[in-house]
UniProtKB/TrEMBL annotation:
Annotated source species: Methylocystis heyeri
Keyword Transferase found: yes
Pathway(s) of this molecule: Glycan biosynthesis; glycogen biosynthesis
InterPro entries xref list: Glyco_trans_1, GS/SS, Starch_synth_cat_dom
Domain Starch synthase catalytic: 7-240
Gene that encodes the chain: glgA
An example Gene Ontology molecular-function term: alpha-1,4-glucan glucosyltransferase (ADP-glucose donor) activity
Protein name, entry field: Glycogen synthase
Positions with a binding annotation for ADP-alpha-D-glucose: K18
GO biological process: glycogen biosynthetic process
Amino acid sequence: MSRISSLAVASEIAPLIKTGGLADVAAALPVALAAEGVDTTTLVPGYPVVLAALPEARPICDLGHYFGGPARLLAASCDGLDLFVLEAPHLYVREGGPYGDFHGADYPDNHLRFAALARLACMIAQGLLPDYAPDILHAHDWQAALVPAYLHYAEIGARRPPTVLTIHNLAFQGKFEKNILGDIGLPPESFSIHGVEFYGGVGFLKAGLQFADRITTVSPAYAAEIMTSEFGMGLEGLLRARAAHVVGILNGVDAKTWDPFTDARIPVHYNQASLSQRSKNKSALQQAFDLEPDAQAFLIGVVSRLSWQKGLDLLLEALPEIMRSGVQIALLGAGDKALESDFLEAARNYPGKIGVKIGYDENASHLVQAGADVFLVPSRFEPCGLTQLYALRYGAVPVVARVGGLQDTIIDANEMALEAGVATGFQFSPVTVDAMIAALRRARNVFADKARWRRLQSNGMKTDVSWREPARRYAELYRELIRQRCGV
């Protein structure tokens, strides 16, 4: 089987720049695809932290005056990844994060910053580089979603490889005013309901959904959910019209990075055969989060963006009931300032019972997974979720809302599943305070039965949540599209 070449386009990639799960996927999928005969090069923006981490990056193309300033295309390698980097200081050198300033406000020129990235991918696909011609383009989320649109509106006869657009979270769509159309280099005729127009403006994600050859989401359940008015975010009609081109492929995790037997970020290593050693990480977690040293406490771990989507306001509302039963909580996260403040206040109100760290700390994230008894994910919607997959690997039993990828990845510990020995966690629905409390109560009841609890942990740890099967499915999808384009 001949190898194929894929150009991936992403606004972030671990370990260079990360705000969420997209970065982990962008980094792990190319490595897994290599075993399936797919060679991937990923095009990313030249943020300062990216350029600083790639001192050996070499210029391969001068783009001249590009989207408002001088720009170059660089090539580099990092952690086994092949990269193209768009070096454009006028677009990417900023004081804040990749998408907005320190106060959380989006940069006003985000339409230019990410249109430039997508346009460059199109130029590469059409032959910008004499020695590189990708067989397929894979765009991730709204920041790269103009790639299929640029190819669609390219001049007649231009090279156009097949395109895949992956939706990591439909809530983030890249919506801008109509007057940006000329600035991003799309023709006037593109502004139509069958083009990039979206409720009177320009929709980056809408454009990708309109023109991509195949649309993937990061779980089968989410693929179905986004075709409903409840989860479709205004795009459900288009998604239903293109349903034959939509497929859900579960995310995986980097099984080497997230392995409790070798993880350098946790105090004590363990595996299924040595689960008893895990209690030492629980003690370390309690110490790190200023919790009372209590080996018998039922310790709930949370690592999350603090937002309405993630349902952490439900946890706040449930605290008076939860804390009556001797529970401890270790929470690591950042996001909504009101939620941050409320959780810090909760930690003050329940000293030794609730520990809160605001911000993101990779070491602390691994420690929560390695030390918590359960890992809580009460999301109102969740395209896939990675933290519950990490929890399975680390023996932190997931308690999750029955939505999206959470319901696809966790087998609920109902009586039948417990008796059959296949359960891996606890699901709850609807996503309400009462349902969440009931799920935590079920979990604590099983926690009291050490043999059953150990079986739950073991089931989770032996679940294959690697990229092996997802990568196989992506490679199969790529080849199918290439065969269709070639008329084979």
